[in-house]
C-alpha cells in the first residue's frame, strides 16, 4: 500500500512511496501530527542518484521491522534535496553544528516538533558497523532521549537556533574588501595538499574542482607557481588513475582510496562539467597535452552518454 509520497511530483519521493515507513512530505500536516502525538520528527534528506540514500532505503526504510520501529516512535518526513535545496542547506549547516562533521546524503536528523534538530548523522547501517551505531538500536534510544531529556533538548535547541542565526550572511560593511580570506584559503589548501598522491586530505578523496580552479586563479593573479604545480600534479594523478574511466571516458564521483585507484562507480554530469573546465584551463596555463587529450575524451563521453534524446 502506498504512503503519502505517492502523490508527490518529485521522482525521488515517489521512489519511497511504497516503503512501509509512514512517510510525510515536508509540510504542516507532518508538523501538526508531531505536535499532536508528541513524537519527534525523523527527517531524511536525499536525492534520486545518491548511492548511500538507496543503500539506507534498501536496508532500513524497506525493512518491515525497522519501519515498524520508525512508525512507532516518530513522524517521518522525506525531502528531495534537488526539490528543496533551501531546506537541505539549513539542515546540513545544523548537522555540522551538532556533530562537528561534514554532512552529506542521506542526511538523517531527528527534530523536535518545532523542527529544530537535536541529534543526527548521515548514513546509518541497520546494525552497528563502520564505527556507526545500528539504526534499529538507535531509534528507540533517540525516542527515549526526546521524552526523558526535554529540558536539555530545549536548551540545546535555543543555542543551535542562535548559532544558525549568527551564521546567516550579514550586510556588507562600509569598508573596502581585502585579500585576507583569499590568502587564508590559499594557505589552508597548501596545508592539506597530498604531496604523495595529489588532491587534498585523505580517503575517500574527491577531485574538488573548485579548489583546483581557485589555485589556478592564484597562479594567474600572483604568478603562484606552487599553486599551478599542485593543480598539475593532482590532475595528472586523477587522469592516470582509476577515478578516470580509462575505457569509457569521463570521471567517477570520487576515489575510495587516497591514490585515485579505486573509484566509487557513479558518474555525475556536474562533476564532469567542472573537471572539464579545470582541465581546459590547466592545459592553457601549462601546455601539458595530457589535460587537453583528457578534456577531449571527456567531451566525447558527455556527447555520447549524457545527452538526452531531446538534446539536453
Please give a quick description of this structure.
The protein has 312 residues and is an alpha/beta fold. It is 52% helix and 8% strand.
Chain oligomer state: single chain
Largest sheet, in brief, is: 5 strands, mixed
Q: How do the helices and strands follow one another from N- to C-terminus? A: HEHEHHEHEEHHHHHHH
Secondary structural class: alpha/beta
Shape: globular
Reading side by side through the largest sheet, how are the strands ordered? 1-3-2-4-5
**First CA to last CA: what distance?**
36 Å
What does the average pLDDT come to?
93
Using only CA atoms, what is the Rg? 23 Å
- How many β strands by DSSP? 5
Tell me what portion of residues adopts beta-strand conformation.
Answer: 5-15%
Low-pLDDT regions? none
Helical fraction:
40-55%
Report on the structure:
This protein is α/β, with parallel strands linked by helices and 312 residues long. The protein has 12 helices and 5 strands. It has helices at 11-15, 28-37, 51-61, 64-73, 85-99, 135-148, 150-167, 180-192, 209-222, 225-240, 269-286, 289-305; strands at 23-25, 41-46, 75-80, 107-111, 117-121. A 5-stranded mixed beta sheet has the order 1-3-2-4-5, with helices on both faces. Strand 4 and strand 5 (117-121) form a beta hairpin. Helix 9 runs antiparallel to helix 10 (225-240) and helix 11 packs antiparallel against helix 12 (289-305). The longest helix has 18 residues, at 150-167. The radius of gyration is 23 Å and the shape is globular. The mean pLDDT is 93.
